[in-house]
């Protein structure tokens, strides 16, 4: 196990030896050994950096190592299926997001798990909004100009996403359907390699979280033509929403912590408190804000209902995008 982990993980060293929150008698109910957090994407994307940020602060607070294990593939179901099969003791968790829990149930004909029944959904972290980025050399500034170019050059523009079935893929295909354009989808195993190819000129455009790419905007390495948020985001207020430009596309990239089904209530409560305490730290809030992750307090029960509800919220978008497995 450790050999496999050493190839895939970054070990976050623990520091203080403090008791876990929610203890009745001073004896820790969680964590009692290193905790592994699986991430459904490769290193460098939002799920990965948020997992590492929370893992670092929880490690320092709780005195146990938090190991980040990147297991990309199969629309996030690879990592989720691993977590489903682990012991329900809180020491194997998933950095949950849209891909394995919201999109995959509609995208795939056969799922290796039930999103609601096979997991304990513990803590909601927050959400961020994706947008469309294009090469500055294209001279495109607005969504209309992008659509006009795509119609003038059908099949010539290529857009990158963080993988088939990802929020960026669903957004890209929904835009194509609604605008009536032919832009070629190039899936990657995560956002980071897509951006590398964008910078190398391989891609005409890509979809990713807007706040996370503000440095590229400031350096004029990319032009953001729209954000799929209900209103402009504070990190890049100059970027108009799709709605403002006549395209009613609003998608939320949510993040949370989930574990296998059947986790004991005291363990669930301890993890929820640890995540909440970490998120409440000013330093963590500042980092999340810089990445465009908007916090929203949510109980474990509310988070569980949210995960279940999101499947139905997204189902028509995924069908419209034609992202279902054939």
Write the layout of secondary structure elements.
Blueprint: H1 2-8, E1 9-12, E2 35-39, H2 46-62, E3 66-70, H3 77-85, E4 92-97, H4 98-107, E5 119-128, E6 130-134, H5 143-152, E7 158-161, H6 167-179, E8 184-187, H7 191-199, E9 205-209, H8 214-218, E10 223-227, E11 253-260, H9 265-280, H10 282-290, E12 294-295, H11 300-321
Parallel strand pairs: 2-3, 2-4, 7-8, 7-9
Antiparallel strand pairs: 1-3, 4-11, 5-11, 5-12, 6-9, 6-10
> What is the C-level CATH assignment of the largest domain?
Alpha Beta
- Distance, first to last CA: 36 Å
Number of helical runs? 11
Give the DSSP E fraction (strand runs of 2 or more residues).
15-25%
Q: Main β-sheet, in a few words?
A: 7 strands, mixed
CATH architecture verdict of the largest domain: 3-Layer(aba) Sandwich
Strand order of the largest sheet: 1-3-2-4-11-5-12
Order of helices and strands: HEEHEHEHEEHEHEHEHEEHHEH
The chain-level mean pLDDT equals 88
Give me the count of strands. Answer: 12
Radius of gyration: 20 Å
Structural class: alpha/beta
CATH topology (level 3) name of the largest domain: D-Maltodextrin-Binding Protein, domain 2
What is the assembly state of the chains in this entry? single chain
Give the CATH superfamily of the largest domain.
Answer: Bordetella uptake gene, domain 1
Q: How many structural domains?
A: 2
Taken from the alpha-carbon principal axes, the silhouette is: globular
Parts with pLDDT < 50 across at least 5 consecutive residues: 1-25
Helix share of residues?
A: 25-40%
InterPro entries: BUG (IPR005064), Bug_dom1 (IPR042100)
Family: Belongs to the UPF0065 (bug) family.
Pfam families: TctC
Keywords: Signal
